[in-house]
Specification:
Layout lengths: L6 E5 L6 H11 L4 E2 L2 E3 L13 E3 L2 H9 L3 E7 L2 E6 H9 L4 E3 L3 H10 L4 E7 L4 H9 L4 H15 L7 E5 L4 H16 L2 H4 L1 H8 L2
Parallel strand pairs: 1-7, 1-8, 2-7, 3-4, 8-9
Antiparallel strand pairs: 3-6, 5-6
Helix pairs in contact: 1-7, 5-6
Bound molecules: guanosine-5'-monophosphate.
Length: 205
Protein backbone atom coordinates (compact mmCIF):
# COMPACT_ATOMS: atom_id res chain seq x y z
CA UNK A 1 0.00 0.00 0.00
CA UNK A 2 1.37 3.47 -0.84
CA UNK A 3 -0.26 5.34 2.00
CA UNK A 4 -3.34 5.12 4.14
CA UNK A 5 -5.58 6.85 1.56
CA UNK A 6 -7.56 4.86 -1.03
CA UNK A 7 -7.41 5.44 -4.75
CA UNK A 8 -10.50 5.22 -6.96
CA UNK A 9 -10.09 5.25 -10.73
CA UNK A 10 -13.21 5.83 -12.83
CA UNK A 11 -12.60 5.03 -16.47
CA UNK A 12 -14.45 3.91 -19.58
CA UNK A 13 -15.16 5.34 -23.02
CA UNK A 14 -15.65 9.00 -23.81
CA UNK A 15 -19.38 9.79 -23.49
CA UNK A 16 -20.00 7.28 -20.69
CA UNK A 17 -20.54 10.18 -18.29
CA UNK A 18 -17.38 10.08 -16.14
CA UNK A 19 -17.22 13.85 -15.63
CA UNK A 20 -20.83 14.24 -14.47
CA UNK A 21 -20.70 11.13 -12.30
CA UNK A 22 -17.46 12.04 -10.55
CA UNK A 23 -18.64 15.65 -10.13
CA UNK A 24 -21.84 14.46 -8.46
CA UNK A 25 -19.94 12.06 -6.20
CA UNK A 26 -17.58 14.83 -5.08
CA UNK A 27 -20.59 16.96 -4.14
CA UNK A 28 -21.84 14.08 -1.96
CA UNK A 29 -18.43 13.21 -0.49
CA UNK A 30 -16.58 16.48 -0.02
CA UNK A 31 -13.60 14.88 1.73
CA UNK A 32 -12.82 12.85 -1.37
CA UNK A 33 -9.92 14.53 -3.18
CA UNK A 34 -9.90 14.85 -6.96
CA UNK A 35 -6.76 14.48 -9.03
CA UNK A 36 -6.79 17.22 -11.71
CA UNK A 37 -5.06 16.01 -14.88
CA UNK A 38 -2.88 17.99 -17.22
CA UNK A 39 -3.69 18.19 -20.93
CA UNK A 40 -2.54 19.87 -24.13
CA UNK A 41 -6.07 20.08 -25.58
CA UNK A 42 -7.86 23.43 -25.77
CA UNK A 43 -10.22 24.25 -22.88
CA UNK A 44 -13.95 23.91 -23.65
CA UNK A 45 -16.12 26.96 -23.01
CA UNK A 46 -17.18 25.99 -19.49
CA UNK A 47 -13.81 24.61 -18.34
CA UNK A 48 -11.39 26.41 -16.10
CA UNK A 49 -7.67 25.96 -15.64
CA UNK A 50 -6.68 24.17 -12.43
CA UNK A 51 -10.21 22.88 -11.81
CA UNK A 52 -11.10 20.77 -14.82
CA UNK A 53 -7.57 20.37 -16.12
CA UNK A 54 -4.21 22.06 -16.02
CA UNK A 55 -4.13 23.28 -19.61
CA UNK A 56 -0.53 23.15 -20.79
CA UNK A 57 1.32 23.95 -24.00
CA UNK A 58 2.82 20.95 -25.76
CA UNK A 59 6.31 22.13 -24.75
CA UNK A 60 5.42 22.50 -21.08
CA UNK A 61 3.76 19.06 -21.03
CA UNK A 62 6.87 17.50 -22.57
CA UNK A 63 9.10 19.27 -20.05
CA UNK A 64 7.08 17.89 -17.13
CA UNK A 65 7.00 14.46 -18.73
CA UNK A 66 10.82 14.45 -19.04
CA UNK A 67 11.10 15.57 -15.40
CA UNK A 68 9.06 12.50 -14.37
CA UNK A 69 6.27 14.71 -13.03
CA UNK A 70 3.48 12.43 -14.32
CA UNK A 71 2.43 9.15 -12.76
CA UNK A 72 1.15 8.15 -16.18
CA UNK A 73 0.45 9.96 -19.45
CA UNK A 74 -1.21 9.06 -22.71
CA UNK A 75 -1.90 10.48 -26.12
CA UNK A 76 -5.63 10.42 -26.68
CA UNK A 77 -7.13 11.58 -29.97
CA UNK A 78 -4.11 13.74 -30.81
CA UNK A 79 -3.71 15.39 -27.40
CA UNK A 80 -1.61 14.56 -24.36
CA UNK A 81 -3.14 13.83 -20.97
CA UNK A 82 -1.27 13.07 -17.75
CA UNK A 83 -1.78 12.54 -14.02
CA UNK A 84 0.45 14.82 -11.93
CA UNK A 85 2.45 12.65 -9.54
CA UNK A 86 3.03 14.94 -6.53
CA UNK A 87 -0.60 15.59 -5.64
CA UNK A 88 -1.60 11.92 -5.77
CA UNK A 89 1.33 10.72 -3.65
CA UNK A 90 0.90 13.51 -1.12
CA UNK A 91 -2.84 12.99 -0.67
CA UNK A 92 -2.55 9.23 -0.27
CA UNK A 93 0.29 9.63 2.23
CA UNK A 94 -1.80 12.09 4.22
CA UNK A 95 -4.64 9.57 4.34
CA UNK A 96 -7.07 11.24 1.93
CA UNK A 97 -9.09 9.09 -0.45
CA UNK A 98 -8.59 10.20 -4.01
CA UNK A 99 -10.57 9.87 -7.24
CA UNK A 100 -9.42 10.33 -10.84
CA UNK A 101 -10.86 9.65 -14.29
CA UNK A 102 -8.22 8.75 -16.89
CA UNK A 103 -8.92 6.83 -20.10
CA UNK A 104 -8.58 3.06 -19.95
CA UNK A 105 -4.84 2.63 -20.63
CA UNK A 106 -4.06 5.29 -18.06
CA UNK A 107 -6.26 3.49 -15.55
CA UNK A 108 -4.32 0.27 -16.13
CA UNK A 109 -0.98 2.07 -15.66
CA UNK A 110 -2.25 3.45 -12.38
CA UNK A 111 -3.21 -0.08 -11.31
CA UNK A 112 0.28 -1.35 -12.01
CA UNK A 113 1.76 1.42 -9.82
CA UNK A 114 -0.96 1.16 -7.16
CA UNK A 115 -2.22 -2.45 -7.19
CA UNK A 116 -4.58 -1.58 -4.38
CA UNK A 117 -6.46 1.03 -6.47
CA UNK A 118 -10.14 0.26 -7.19
CA UNK A 119 -10.70 0.39 -10.96
CA UNK A 120 -14.23 1.18 -12.04
CA UNK A 121 -15.35 0.85 -15.68
CA UNK A 122 -18.28 3.08 -16.55
CA UNK A 123 -20.66 2.39 -19.45
CA UNK A 124 -24.08 3.62 -20.54
CA UNK A 125 -26.86 0.99 -20.48
CA UNK A 126 -26.51 0.69 -24.25
CA UNK A 127 -23.19 1.07 -26.04
CA UNK A 128 -24.97 2.85 -28.91
CA UNK A 129 -25.85 5.68 -26.50
CA UNK A 130 -22.20 6.80 -26.48
CA UNK A 131 -22.58 8.36 -29.92
CA UNK A 132 -25.77 10.21 -28.98
CA UNK A 133 -24.18 11.59 -25.83
CA UNK A 134 -21.09 12.79 -27.69
CA UNK A 135 -23.30 14.45 -30.33
CA UNK A 136 -25.49 16.08 -27.69
CA UNK A 137 -22.64 17.77 -25.85
CA UNK A 138 -21.51 19.50 -29.09
CA UNK A 139 -17.88 19.78 -28.06
CA UNK A 140 -16.35 17.54 -30.75
CA UNK A 141 -16.50 17.51 -34.54
CA UNK A 142 -18.07 14.51 -36.31
CA UNK A 143 -14.60 13.18 -37.15
CA UNK A 144 -13.54 13.42 -33.51
CA UNK A 145 -16.69 11.62 -32.41
CA UNK A 146 -16.05 8.82 -34.91
CA UNK A 147 -12.50 8.50 -33.60
CA UNK A 148 -13.67 8.46 -29.96
CA UNK A 149 -16.07 5.63 -30.79
CA UNK A 150 -13.29 3.63 -32.44
CA UNK A 151 -11.20 4.12 -29.29
CA UNK A 152 -14.21 3.04 -27.19
CA UNK A 153 -14.24 -0.38 -28.90
CA UNK A 154 -10.52 -0.75 -28.19
CA UNK A 155 -11.12 0.21 -24.56
CA UNK A 156 -13.78 -2.49 -24.14
CA UNK A 157 -11.08 -5.13 -24.65
CA UNK A 158 -9.62 -4.26 -21.25
CA UNK A 159 -12.78 -4.44 -19.19
CA UNK A 160 -11.69 -7.74 -17.60
CA UNK A 161 -8.76 -5.98 -15.91
CA UNK A 162 -11.11 -3.72 -13.95
CA UNK A 163 -12.58 -4.40 -10.50
CA UNK A 164 -16.08 -2.98 -11.04
CA UNK A 165 -18.48 -2.39 -13.94
CA UNK A 166 -20.85 0.49 -13.33
CA UNK A 167 -23.82 1.24 -15.59
CA UNK A 168 -24.84 4.83 -16.06
CA UNK A 169 -28.39 4.63 -17.31
CA UNK A 170 -29.92 7.61 -19.11
CA UNK A 171 -32.25 9.61 -16.84
CA UNK A 172 -31.19 7.52 -13.84
CA UNK A 173 -27.79 9.02 -13.26
CA UNK A 174 -28.58 9.51 -9.55
CA UNK A 175 -28.57 5.76 -9.21
CA UNK A 176 -25.12 5.52 -10.77
CA UNK A 177 -23.84 8.12 -8.30
CA UNK A 178 -25.27 6.06 -5.42
CA UNK A 179 -23.70 2.91 -6.84
CA UNK A 180 -20.32 4.63 -7.06
CA UNK A 181 -20.72 5.91 -3.52
CA UNK A 182 -21.48 2.33 -2.40
CA UNK A 183 -18.25 1.12 -4.02
CA UNK A 184 -16.23 3.83 -2.25
CA UNK A 185 -17.82 3.02 1.10
CA UNK A 186 -17.44 -0.76 0.68
CA UNK A 187 -13.76 -0.45 -0.26
CA UNK A 188 -13.13 1.42 2.98
CA UNK A 189 -14.38 -1.56 5.00
CA UNK A 190 -12.20 -4.25 3.44
CA UNK A 191 -10.39 -6.15 6.18
CA UNK A 192 -6.90 -5.40 4.91
CA UNK A 193 -7.61 -1.65 5.01
CA UNK A 194 -8.03 -1.67 8.76
CA UNK A 195 -4.48 -2.58 9.70
CA UNK A 196 -3.51 -4.94 12.47
CA UNK A 197 -3.01 -2.14 15.00
CA UNK A 198 -6.54 -0.81 14.76
CA UNK A 199 -7.99 -4.33 14.96
CA UNK A 200 -5.90 -5.08 18.05
CA UNK A 201 -7.03 -1.79 19.61
CA UNK A 202 -10.65 -2.80 18.95
CA UNK A 203 -10.06 -6.17 20.56
CA UNK A 204 -8.63 -4.56 23.69
CA UNK A 205 -11.11 -1.72 23.92
P1 LIG B 1 -11.60 14.88 -22.68
O1 LIG B 1 -10.83 15.52 -23.79
O2 LIG B 1 -12.96 14.40 -23.14
O3 LIG B 1 -11.66 15.72 -21.44
O4 LIG B 1 -10.79 13.57 -22.26
C1 LIG B 1 -10.45 12.62 -23.21
C2 LIG B 1 -10.05 11.33 -22.51
O5 LIG B 1 -8.85 11.54 -21.78
C3 LIG B 1 -11.11 10.88 -21.51
O6 LIG B 1 -11.33 9.48 -21.70
C4 LIG B 1 -10.46 11.15 -20.19
O7 LIG B 1 -10.88 10.23 -19.21
C5 LIG B 1 -9.00 10.97 -20.51
N1 LIG B 1 -8.10 11.60 -19.53
C6 LIG B 1 -8.28 12.73 -18.82
N2 LIG B 1 -7.24 12.95 -18.01
C7 LIG B 1 -6.38 11.93 -18.17
C8 LIG B 1 -5.12 11.57 -17.58
O8 LIG B 1 -4.55 12.24 -16.72
N3 LIG B 1 -4.53 10.45 -18.03
C9 LIG B 1 -5.10 9.66 -18.97
N4 LIG B 1 -4.45 8.55 -19.31
N5 LIG B 1 -6.28 9.95 -19.54
C10 LIG B 1 -6.92 11.07 -19.15
Amino acid sequence: MFGPGLLFVVSGPSGAGKDTLVGALRARMPRLKYSVSATTREPRAEESDGEDYFFLSHGEFKRRQAANEFLEYREYNGHLYGTPRDFVEKMLMEGYDLIMKPEVNGALSIKSTFPDAALIFLLPDKFSHLRGRLLARRTETNDEIARRLEIAHEEMKHIGQFDYLLINEDRRSDEAVSDLEAIVRAERFRIHRWGEDSIRKLEHS
